[in-house]
Specification:
The chain is α/β, with parallel strands linked by helices. Helix content is 42%, strand content 18%. It folds into 2 domains: 119 residues, no CATH class; 195 residues, no CATH class. InterPro entries: Chitin_synth.
């Protein structure tokens, strides 16, 4: 997260806590059950100590996962990169009349809070998650959720189930639904109605067909999941994460115009690299995001996304049949996207 307010943060955290409770209630499951919370770690990465919303920070402190006043900019003359807090919390929250209230909960949840000292953008936050905490925790499945996205009461479980049923599934996503308000009143806003239509068309037409081919062009960063072992680089340091994190250093003059703009759609790069991973045959499967109500933010997000998508599609087609590629799905994917693009 960046500087999302307490309402957006609470909306996401409430959904995550409900999913933990749901998994703990699955008494007949071989994987989950009463002690399922011991197999789950909720990791919150905040991009910049000076940028985090004070009220959101207060919520984290109320949950016991943050302590005010102990963070320092330097230790022994060396600059601090991030502040890491760990706690098993039994504090939940509810939203009443646009006010977040903390409540006691019997169900524990293991939490890890990483507060980065400087604002270093989204890809750097993902680097912390995958290459720092991931190496220590060695998770099976990683679920990425943007602050403000409200997962359904069992959404995370059903994402996990997609990996459980398909051993070669490297990534999965579900349907992102618009928050329409009571009686769908938010549809009166033409911007919300437009986004709702786009989401529905994508989830009804695009993603099911892409999933049938084993390649979903983009797993939305707002709510998606990945198999950790599929993301790992090979012994030479080449692989999905290596290509994905290359975008972190492409904001300066070292990157070409084509490459720099392609990384505006970095989620698509990760999907492409997973499916085309050398000597593997991983596939992607189809298993609540907040909408933007401001015209300026809508146009900024849409134009950035479309521009990056166009260049990424050109890149996919330009690869042709990658030598020593990834298996039987690759050629079908190239032909399919070539037909659609034409």
């Amino acid at each position: 997260m960046y500087n999302e307010d307490e309402i957006l943060f609470a909306r996401t955290m409430i959904g995550v806590l409900k999913n933990v409770e749901y998994m703990c209630k699955r008494a007949e499951s071989k994987t989950w059950g009463k002690d399922a919370w011991k197999k789950i770690v909720v990791c919150v990465v905040s991009d910049g100590r000076a940028k985090i919303n004070p009220r959101t920070r207060a919520l984290l402190a109320g949950m016991g996962v943050y302590q005010e006043g102990i963070g320092k900019q330097q230790v022994n003359g060396k600059d601090v990169t991030a502040h890491i807090y760990e706690y098993t919390s039994q504090v939940g929250m509810v939203i009443k009349n646009d006010v977040v209230q903390l409540i006691p909960k019997q169900q524990p949840v293991q939490m890890l809070f990483c507060l980065k000292e400087k604002n270093q953008k989204k890809i750097n936050s993902h680097r912390w998650f995958f290459q720092a905490f991931g190496r220590v925790l060695d998770p099976n499945i990683c679920v990425l959720i943007d602050a403000g996205t409200k997962p359904g009461g069992s959404s995370i479980y059903h994402l996990w189930k997609a990996f459980d049923l398909e051993p070669m599934c490297a990534g999965a996503c579900g349907e992102i639904k618009a928050m329409l308000g009571t009686g769908g009143k938010n549809l009166l806003n033409p911007l919300v109605a437009t986004q709702n239509f786009e989401y529905k068309m994508s989830n009804i037409l695009d993603k099911p067909l892409e999933s049938a081919f084993g390649f979903i062009s983009v797993l939305p960063g707002a709510f998606s999941a990945y198999r950790y072992v599929a993301l790992q680089n090979d012994k030479n340091g080449q692989g999905p994460l290596e290509k994905y994190f290359a975008g972190e250093k492409m904001h300066g003059a070292n990157a070409g115009i084509f490459t720099a703009n392609m990384y505006l759609a970095e989620d698509r790069i990760l999907c492409f690299e997973l499916v085309t991973k050398r000597n593997c045959h991983w596939i992607l499967h189809l298993g609540d995001d907040n909408l933007l109500g401001n015209v300026g933010r809508i146009l900024s997000v849409v134009f950035t996304w479309l521009y990056g998508v166009s260049l990424m599609t050109c890149f996919v087609l330009s690869m042709g049949n990658r030598p020593a590629g990834s298996g039987p799905y690759y050629m079908a994917m190239v032909v399919f996207w070539a037909i659609l693009f034409v």
